[in-house]
Amino acid sequence: MPLHKSTQAAYHTESNPAREGRVVGKQEILNRFPSIKNDVFRAVTKAFPVALTRSWLSRSSGKADDPLLVQALPQAKELLRTDGDRPDPVGDQRKSSVPWLVQKHPDRALLLVTKRCHLYCRYCFRRDHQPGAALDPTPQELEFALSAAIESGARELILSGGDPLSLTNSALGAILHRAKTHFAVTRIHTRAPITAPDRVDAGLLELVQEHAPLWIVVHANHPDELSDTVLHGLSTLRRAGASMLNQSVLLKGVNDDVAVLRRLSERLVEHGIFPYYLHHTDPVPGNAHFRVSATVGLRIHRELSRQVSGVALPRYVVDLEDGSGKIPVSEAQKLGLLM
Length: 339
Known about the structure:
By secondary structure, the chain is an alpha/beta fold. It has a single domain, classed as TIM Barrel, CATH 3.20.20.70. The radius of gyration is 19 Å and the shape is globular. It starts with 22 loop residues before the first strand and ends in a 5-residue tail after the last helix.
């Protein structure tokens, strides 16, 4: 299949030299956090990369058990396996007939534009990095996946990954230009404005203005993630024309607390960002120490509903293993799908 001229645009991840110093390297992590042993770091990264931004570190207490650092630092617990592990916990693979494209619903198509992130969340349900496997689609693969999404008749195109904002603005712009021609709605699902707020640069804001209306779904789990710099970036995206939603994951030791979730939701709403979803943790191998039972999660969500308005209350959902999509956790529990 010949490449569309937009797809022929330079497709690469961001490599701005001004940003090279923002990532905390392996040796600094080992020096700062002596509880992390070199052999554990090495073993963990064989299964899933480790990346930590200085911005993220600066918002933490600096202690390894800080709720932000728990999400980012490698732990020996990741090497453990449990009976509840599911290699494809949300059914992406069975709903992907074309590489780099997932389609669970006829009206929506999810394009995986990269597997790279600025920070690799240790609970991630896409912990499927294989040694030597490509982290980005080739231009030909991207074209094939995007063409398949167009031909499917979907109304919405969701750019996901990895993190779509790991792409350069020129590469992202080429995809957005194509999407605007063929889809009624385009969404970007990204954690970058939270983990690497300097990614919200002038070029990105120009893209948002050019392709508005554009939905940007960010991912914050804890109120400490929302520094003044982060909130400024989110506000500038809104002013540029983005409609903003947030998705969180319920995580043991991070936000399995009503007061924490309340502060998160209230701060998001204060800045014009709707707390869209609270996800039940997907049981991918290596994240068992983050999982909260459905019974506990429902109790937390019920109490949260008594303390915040409907505007500030996220839907508590689980993404089903059969690939059929998200349903309320309460419904999944009644069906015997969750305990």
